[in-house]
Design goal:
The chain is of the alpha/beta class. A hairpin with a 2-residue loop joins strand 6 and strand 7. It has four domains: 221 residues, TIM Barrel (Alpha-Beta Barrel), CATH 3.20.20; 136 residues, Glycosidases (TIM Barrel, Alpha-Beta Barrel); 213 residues, Golgi alpha-mannosidase II (Immunoglobulin-like, Sandwich); 115 residues, Immunoglobulin-like (Sandwich), CATH 2.60.40. Helix 3 runs parallel beside helix 4 and helix 9 packs across helix 11. The protein is built from 16 helices and 35 strands.
C-alpha cells in the first residue's frame, strides 16, 4: 500500500544531450512537419497514411520495416504521405503484461525505465536516419513527450487517453499533428471536447513546472469503432454524422444566421450563431433536444452563452444580425441564447423545471431560469474579496441568481496542489461563504480535485469544516426554498447588499465585505489568511491553530443582532472583532426572525419536512412564510403550492401559525413544528436542539402559541 521510489529519471534535456538529433535530420523533420501540417489544414490535397504495427519492441525489426517504406513513399509521393508507426508504449487495459520498449527495453528482462527512455530515443533516431521518414508514436504517458518532442512528426492519443485532461492539455503544447482517437464508448461529445481542449491554450502543471501552452491547431479526430456497455464492438461515427455537422453550419449560413467574425477556437472556421434569429434558435434547440435532452437530463450547463470574440475589429460590430447590427445588440447575446433554450424546453414539456447554468448574463435573464456564475477565477484571497463585491453588484442589477467557483477555479498560486495546506484554508473559507450563496457549487480545474476526501479525513480541520458547512446548507433548505419563492413571487433577491435593508445607515452604502442572505441572515465571509502561510515557492505551511484569529464585523444600525453560533444578542450600529476559528464564519441573525430548520439529509428530497424546527430570534416582531410545492415541475404556475404564514409578537411572546393556503398533490396535511426561542446556548449553531419550548401538531388550521 505504498510507493517504492527506485530511481530518479534523467531529464529530457539530459537524454537529448547524450543522444542528439543531427542538424541534417532536424532539417528533414522540419520539412516533413510542414508537409504533414499542409495536409491537416487542407493546403495539400494528399492523404496521410499512418502505417505500421501497434508495438515497436525490437529496434532491428522496426528499422527494417520503416526502411522498406522509403521506396513506397517515393512511388506514391504525389498522392500520399506515409508516417510509420513506432509505438514505444503499449497500453494495457488491465495494466498487466508487456508495456513497451519505453518501460521494458528487453521483453525477457525486468522493467528499466532509464534504459527504456534511452532505447526509445535511439530507436526513433535510427529509424529516421535509415529511412528518411519521421515517425508517429502514441503518447501513453504525457511526461514522456519531452524525450521525443524533437523526433516525432505525429502523435496519436489513444481511445482511453482522450478522456484524460492531462493528455488533452499536453497536446495543446505540441507543434506537430496529433490524432485524438474517439473514445472506447464512442461518445461523440467526448471526441469533440478532446479536440476542442487540445486546440486551445492552457495553464497547468507539467513535469513539476507551471506552464502555458498556445493550443495546437493541428489536433484532429481519428475515427474508430466503439465498445458498447455490453462489450460488443460496434461501428460509429458514420460519414453521415459528420456531414450533419457541416450541413447545420451551411444551413445557418444560408439563412444568414451565422456571425462572421473570429471566435474560439481561432482559425478553425467556427462561427457563432445568431441567437436573435428565431429560426437559428429553432435549429440550435433541435440539435440539443435530439442529442442531449431526449436522452434524459436535469439541467443545462451552457457555460459561456456568448461568443469569445477574438482579434476584435471595429467592423465586426457592423456584422448584421436579425435585429440589427451586432454593435446595437451584442450585449444581449446571452439573454437571447438562454431565451431560446428556455422557451423551447418549456414548449416541449413542463414536467421538469428548466435550469440553465451560464457565465454570461444580461438584464432580465433570470426570467429564463438562468443562473450565472462568475467564470474561471483564480484561487487567491484577493480574488475572493473581489468576487464578493462582484456578487453584490450583480444582485443590485436585479439578477438574483449568482455564485462563484468555491475555492476558485485555477489553483496556480498553490502549485495546483490540492494537498497544499495554504490552499486548504482558502478553500474552506470560500466554501463556508458558498453555504450562503444562491447556489453552493464547487468547480475547479484539473489537476486539482476538490472532493471532501482530498482535504483529509474526519478529525482533520479542513475536512471537518467542509463537512460542517455542507450539512448546514442542507439544514437551510426550507429557508432557501421559501426565499426563492419570494424572489419569484415578489421580484426579490437572495444576496442583498446592506443598503437594501438599511438605507438609513450611511456606513453600509458602499460596504462590500458583508451582506444579507435573504432578509434574515447577516453574512461576513472571512477573506484573509489567518492560519497558514506560503513561502516564495508557493509551498504552504500551517500556523498554530490554537491562536484564534479575528475579523471585523459591522452590525448595521436599526436592528438588534443575534450571533448564529452563540445566541448572544448585540446592538446594531457598531463594529466588533469576532473570533473566527477555522470552522466559524461570522453569521448573525436579525432579531425578529423566524427560521425553519430542516432535517439532516444527503439530497434535497431525502426526507419530508414533516418535523421542522422553528427557530425564533426574539427582540422584535417577526414574519415568515413557509413555501412548498411539488419541487420539480411547473404546476406551481397553476396554483399547485402551499404557503404557511407565521407571525411572532415579541411583546406578547406569542407565535401564530396561520391557516395553510393552497394545496398540491402529495402535500403534507399533518406535520409537527418544534419551536425554540434562541438564546445563548439554546437553538444555536448548526446542530439539532434536543429540547424545545413547545411542539405542536399542525393540520393546516391556525395555531396560536404562548411562549
Amino acid at each position: 500500500m505504498s510507493f517504492t521510489f527506485l530511481n530518479e529519471l534523467p531529464s529530457p534535456a539530459e537524454i537529448k544531450q547524450n543522444y542528439p538529433l543531427s542538424d541534417k535530420l532536424k532539417a528533414l523533420k522540419k520539412e516533413r512537419d510542414a508537409a504533414i501540417s499542409a495536409v491537416i489544414t487542407g493546403a495539400d490535397s494528399r492523404f496521410l497514411v499512418i502505417i505500421g504495427p501497434c508495438s515497436a519492441d525490437n529496434e532491428d525489426s522496426v528499422c527494417d520495416y520503416v526502411s522498406r517504406l522509403t521506396s513506397i513513399q517515393e512511388d506514391v509521393a504525389d498522392k500520399l504521405i506515409l508516417i510509420p508507426r513506432v509505438y514505444t508504449n503499449k497500453p494495457r487495459t488491465t495494466g498487466e503484461g508487456y508495456k513497451g520498449i519505453a518501460s521494458q527495453p528487453d521483453p525477457e528482462k525486468a522493467p528499466d525505465m532509464i534504459e527504456g527512455l534511452i532505447a526509445m530515443r535511439k530507436m526513433h533516431i535510427r529509424a529516421i536516419e535509415e529511412s528518411g521518414l519521421t515517425c508517429a508514436d502514441e503518447m501513453l504517458y504525457p511526461e514522456n513527450w519531452g524525450y521525443v518532442e524533437d523526433l516525432l512528426s505525429y502523435v496519436a492519443i489513444g481511445a482511453r487517453s482522450v478522456e484524460d485532461q492531462q493528455h488533452r492539455l499536453t497536446v495543446s503544447g505540441f507543434d506537430v499533428a496529433s490524432g485524438m482517437k474517439n473514445p472506447t464508448s464512442g461518445d461523440f461529445s467526448v471526441m469533440l471536447n478532446s479536440v476542442y481542449a487540445a486546440q486551445h491554450p492552457h495553464h497547468f502543471v507539467y513535469r513539476g513546472y507551471e506552464v502555458e501552452t498556445t493550443g495546437n491547431p493541428l489536433t484532429h479526430v481519428v475515427l474508430r469503432g466503439a465498445v458498447s456497455k455490453h462489450g460488443n464492438t460496434t461501428q460509429n461515427y458514420h460519414y453521415e454524422d459528420l456531414i450533419r455537422l457541416c450541413e447545420m453550419y451551411q444551413k445557418m449560413d444560408s439563412l444568414k444566421a451565422l456571425l462572421h467574425f473570429e471566435t474560439w477556437p481561432p482559425k478553425a472556421g467556427v462561427k457563432p450563431y445568431d441567437p436573435f434569429n428565431p429560426t437559428a434558435r429553432d435549429m440550435y434547440w433541435a440539435e440539443m433536444k435530439k442529442n442531449i435532452f431526449d436522452l434524459g437530463m436535469d439541467g443545462w450547463w451552457l457555460d459561456s452563452t456568448e461568443p469569445d470574440h477574438l482579434e476584435i475589429k471595429d467592423k465586426d460590430f457592423d456584422t448584421p444580425t436579425y435585429l440589427g447590427s451586432f454593435r446595437r445588440v451584442h450585449n444581449a447575446f446571452p439573454l437571447m441564447s438562454n431565451k431560446g433554450v428556455y422557451e423551447h424546453q418549456r414548449a416541449t414539456t413542463s414536467d421538469k423545471r428548466v435550469f440553465l447554468l451560464t457565465r454570461s448574463s444580461f438584464l432580465g435573464q433570470q426570467r429564463y431560469a438562468s443562473h450565472s456564475w462568475s467564470g474561471d477565477v483564480v484561487s487567491t484571497w484577493e480574488v475572493m474579496k473581489k468576487q464578493l463585491a462582484a456578487g453584490l453588484n450583480y444582485s443590485l442589477c436585479g439578477i438574483p441568481y449568482w455564485n462563484t467557483d468555491l475555492g476558485g477555479f485555477f489553483a496556480w498560486k498553490y502549485n495546483n496542489n490540492v494537498h497544499n495546506i495554504a490552499y486548504h484554508e482558502l478553500h474552506v473559507r470560500w466554501y463556508q461563504w458558498g453555504a450562503f450563496q444562491p447556489i453552493m457549487r464547487s468547480h475547479n480545474s484539473s489537476p486539482v480535485a476538490v472532493e471532501i476526501y482530498q482535504f483529509g479525513k474526519k478529525g482533520d480541520w479542513a475536512y471537518d469544516a467542509l463537512e460542517k458547512y455542507t450539512h448546514l446548507r442542507y439544514r437551510l433548505l426550507p429557508y432557501l426554498y421559501s426565499t426563492s419563492w419570494e424572489v419569484t413571487n415578489k421580484a426579490g433577491s437572495i444576496i442583498r447588499p446592506l443598503m437594501m435593508d438599511f438605507p438609513k445607515d450611511k456606513k453600509v452604502l458602499e460596504m462590500d465585505t458583508e451582506y444579507m442572505f435573504g432578509r434574515n441572515f447577516l453574512v461576513r465571509p472571512v477573506t484573509d489568511s489567518l492560519y497558514t502561510w506560503q513561502d516564495d515557492k508557493q509551498n504552504g505551511y500551517q500556523k498554530n491553530m490554537n491562536k484564534i484569529g479575528k475579523t471585523d464585523v459591522y452590525l448595521p444600525a436599526g436592528a438588534q443582532w443575534i450571533d448564529f453560533w452563540t445566541g448572544k444578542s448585540l446592538k446594531g450600529g457598531q463594529t466588533i472583532q469576532r473570533e473566527v476559528p477555522i470552522d466559524i464564519m461570522p453569521v448573525y441573525v436579525r432579531a425578529g426572525s423566524i427560521l425553519p430548520w430542516g432535517p439532516a439529509v444527503q439530497y434535497s428530497t431525502e426526507k419530508k419536512w414533516d418535523n421542522l424546527t422553528l427557530r425564533i430570534y426574539p427582540g422584535a416582531d417577526a414574519e415568515f412564510t413557509l413555501y412548498e410545492d411539488e419541487f420539480d415541475n411547473y404546476n406551481y404556475e397553476k396554483g399547485a403550492y402551499t404557503t404557511i404564514a407565521m407571525k411572532w409578537n415579541d411583546k406578547d411572546r406569542t407565535l401564530t401559525i396561520n391557516d395553510r393556503q393552497g394545496n398540491y398533490k402529495g402535500m403534507l396535511k399533518n406535520r409537527k413544528f418544534n419551536i425554540i426561542i434562541v438564546e445563548p446556548g439554546k437553538g444555536c449553531g448548526d446542530g439539532d436542539a434536543t429540547t424545545f419550548d413547545q411542539s405542536v401538531s399542525y393540520r393546516g388550521k391556525r395555531v396560536d402559541l404562548k411562549l
